[in-house]
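TOKENISE THE FOLD
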Amino acid sequence: MSGVILETKNLTKQFRGFTAVNDVNLKVQRGHIHALIGPNGAGKTTCFNLLTKFLVPTSGQILFNDKDITAAKPAQIARMGVIRSFQISAVFPHLTVLQNVRIGLQRQLGTSFHFWQSERALDRLNDRAMQLLAEVDLTEFADTVTVDMPYGRKRALEIATTLAMEPELMLLDEPTQGMGHEDVHRVTDLIKKVSAGRTILMVEHNMKVVSGICDKISVLQRGAMLAEGTYAEVSRNPQVMEAYMGTEAAELEGAH
């Protein structure tokens, strides 16, 4: 297999004459943390929706592990190992943290989405679920009802439920959105930790997060690829500076 895990070729999405994603050629390297950034309205979310098959492209191709998945359904690509987090928000608020992770693990039993398995069947999953909670620093919250958890910790739980699905490629949709400084720091560390042996593609607004953990960055503007490279390369690009005029450009600079 090539070093490229996910590739788009001339990916385009039009809505009644408006081009939301325009001829995008994206290559995500295996093992990388790759960020998709851009000003509001740049097409990042539409791009993510195309990659996870919630939208059908107008034209172009999507390849995962060199296999054309352009016509695949969301459930099919999930089975292949492309799992999107934070959009699933796969947390059931009135179940405990442990129960939420067990539901994610049911996929391995071949009973996925027969949600209400007998307790005995699910108890087999407890050890693995506790391992996952340890991985995201939530062991102490195992018996907490999810609705009672702080916001940043819910996000960590979403990462744990995503990991339970054994993703080869994790798509994180604005993982630090709406978080305070301490939570941002914790979730950033967490993403770095869980990226070992996996590939992560994330849409993220927080430039400090992007500069701190990403191997490669693709910048979208008005649906088209504006620039691509390391954070240092992208943040020095005059076109990128212009796209992020004003406050956001200062933020690009300041995140070094």
In short: Residues 92-166 form one domain. The radius of gyration is 19 Å. Residues 151-164 form the longest helix (14 residues).
